[in-house]
Amino acid sequence: YLYQELRVKGGAYGNMSDFTLGGYLYFVSYRDPNLRETLEVYNTIPEFLRNFDCDKREFDKYIIGEISSLDFPLTPEGMGDKADEDYITGFTFEDRQQIRDEVLSAKIEDMRNYAELIEAVMSKNHYAVFGSETKVKEAADLFDAITPALR
């Protein structure tokens, strides 16, 4: 959905989103010419999820895509970094396997059930934007404060 709306229709170079293990949710677009429109797209995510539907083949592609983001080859350095991160955070093999199992057993209804959670988060209107000063100032009404990141 975000790829289609932000990249294909909106011209952003790319986008991503994630729920972190620490409980954070974020949406990111980059090299995006449409600040206001992108934030509007983010606000439509709950409605998109409420009405989410696709056939089994398409849903399987979503599952495969998510699994590929969890399980991919690492260089020796990457393995060391991952081991350090897991040790520091207390993340275990069992934790990783539970995530895999949840992804592999996901159903379309599970996607729909995220609508309420995302809507609750989005209702807080917490935005952090790194972008062209001109574009940010054009959308100043969206923000309580604008603080330059670099001086």
Question: Your description of this structure?
Answer:
- With 151 residues, this protein is mainly alpha-helical.
- It has one domain (2-142): Cytochrome Bc1 Complex, Chain A, domain 1 (2-Layer Sandwich).
- It is 57% helix and 8% strand.
- It has helices spanning 2-9, 35-50, 56-70, 76-89, 93-104, 108-122, 133-138, and strands at 14-19, 25-30.
- Strands 1-2 form a two-stranded antiparallel sheet.
- The longest helix has 16 residues, at 35-50.
- The protein is globular.
- The protein starts with a helix and ends in a 13-residue tail after the last helix.
- The mean pLDDT is 94.
Can you give me a brief rundown of this structure?
With 151 residues, the protein is mostly helical.
Structural class: mainly alpha
* Distance separating the two termini: 36 Å
Residue ranges: pLDDT <50 for 5 or more in a row? none
| CA radius of gyration | 18 Å
- CATH topology heading: Cytochrome Bc1 Complex, Chain A, domain 1
SS strand fraction: 5-15%
Principal-axis shape equals: globular
